[in-house]
Design a protein that fits this description.
Distance between the termini: 29 Å
Largest sheet: none
Structural class: mainly alpha
Order of helices and strands: HHHHH
Length: 156
Amino acid sequence: MRLTKVAGAVAALGLAAVGTMHAIWTVTPWPMASYADLARTVVGVTEGFPPAPLTGAVAVALGAAAYLVAAQAHLISSAVRPRLIRTGVWTVAGVIAARGTAGLISSGLTGPSTDYTRMDLALYSPLCLAIASLAAYVAVSTGRATSATSLRPAHR
């Protein structure tokens, strides 16, 4: 169970950190000098960083994902039903894995290299795949304990 807690903590902190960056971007382009630079490096477009409400929604979704993974790893208590949390963690793992896989494929197949494709291949997509793997590990490892307990015969 200790490894599950470590995996959950790393995944939840990674999701929370990325969510925090998105929250920061609703008010400032930090660490870039302008939103145009941020759009080119983080989104892969030359102009038009996503509007603050959309960026804020991503921040909230990533925060919720961090919460679900932390709850499934038993790092925090939760009033949410365990089955719902587990389903949420599998959803997080699937969505983040899809993002990582799609990023590697699309950035790898893109013609000329750009700031975004370099960052996507070196950081964004691998980070997504690592977080997705950790979240899936948490779901699997905590699911086994629950399943094994429910399969035991009742003592009379």
